[in-house]
Design goal:
Blueprint: H1 6-14, H2 23-32, E1 41-48, E2 60-64, E3 75-78, H3 82-89, E4 94-96, H4 98-105, E5 113-116, H5 118-132, H6 150-159, E6 161-165, E7 172-179, H7 184-200, E8 211-218, E9 224-226
Parallel strand pairs: 3-4, 3-5
Antiparallel strand pairs: 1-7, 1-8, 2-6, 8-9
């Protein structure tokens, strides 16, 4: 078993892994225990009481973080004609069709989000499905990234729109909610918006406890558990 570093051990001294913290306490701790030489991402992990093998419980959607992600997002748009022009004017980082598809198939993945117009999905899906699908980067109608309104979608993504989706096996939703350099109120604001979206997305077929566990952590930190009852 790999030995934990000194810094990790020191962080654990401040965090009780069995304690269920309030949102205020957890956010304060995640900032207090961050000390990496880079601006760490704050991640939110929520385990839901669902069976993602059932189509109606395979939760997926988008939410816009009011304080952004703290990250510069590189957007690829698969479009041609007028939508391609609109994408370029809206600030898309890469716009194209066949040549862009081939570049990705050859191993280029230097981007964070993709958008496609509906008419191109049939041609790009066979080539890109296996490449982008497992990485969560394939354009998807449910997530709003298969659209003719490419300009508005680009602007939303760059302003802080993120996609959430449940992992089929674990039932966990992982999303970034900011950076450790953010003010505490900004992290809390982003966290509460995501939790609100997850609660609103609860399938009607789910019985029993829906929010099983909630935790936040910095990139190099430990998980800090939050009492799920605060969001119910």
């Amino acid at each position: 078993m790999a030995k934990k570093g000194k810094r990790y051990t020191e962080i654990k001294e401040h965090v009780d892994r069995l304690e269920l913290y309030t949102v205020d306490e957890a956010v304060s701790l995640v900032k207090k225990t961050s000390g990496a030489k880079f601006d760490e991402t704050v991640d939110l992990a929520s385990r839901l009481g669902i069976n993602a093998q059932h189509a109606d419980q395979n939760i997926r959607g988008t939410v816009t973080l009011p304080h952004g992600t703290g990250k510069s997002v590189r957007v690829v748009v698969f479009a041609e004609g007028d939508p391609a022009r609109q994408a370029e004017e809206a600030g898309a980082d890469f716009v194209g069709t066949d040549e862009l598809v081939d570049k990705i198939v050859d191993g280029w993945l230097d981007f964070d989000a993709t958008i496609a117009t509906p008419d191109l999905m049939r041609s790009i899906m066979p080539k890109l499905g296996r490449v982008l699908g497992p990485r969560g980067l394939m354009p998807n109608a449910k997530a709003g990234t298969v659209t003719m309104d490419v300009a508005a979608t680009i602007q939303s993504i760059k302003a802080g729109q993120i996609e959430y989706r449940v992992e089929r096996v674990s039932g966990i939703v992982h999303v970034p909610i900011g950076k450790t350099s953010f003010e505490e109120e900004s992290i809390k604001g982003n966290l509460n918006v995501v939790m609100g979206a997850l609660i609103a997305a609860r399938p009607s077929s789910v019985k029993g406890r829906y929010l099983r566990s909630v935790a936040i952590s910095a990139t190099m930190g430990v998980g800090i558990r939050i009492d799920p009852q605060q969001f119910v």
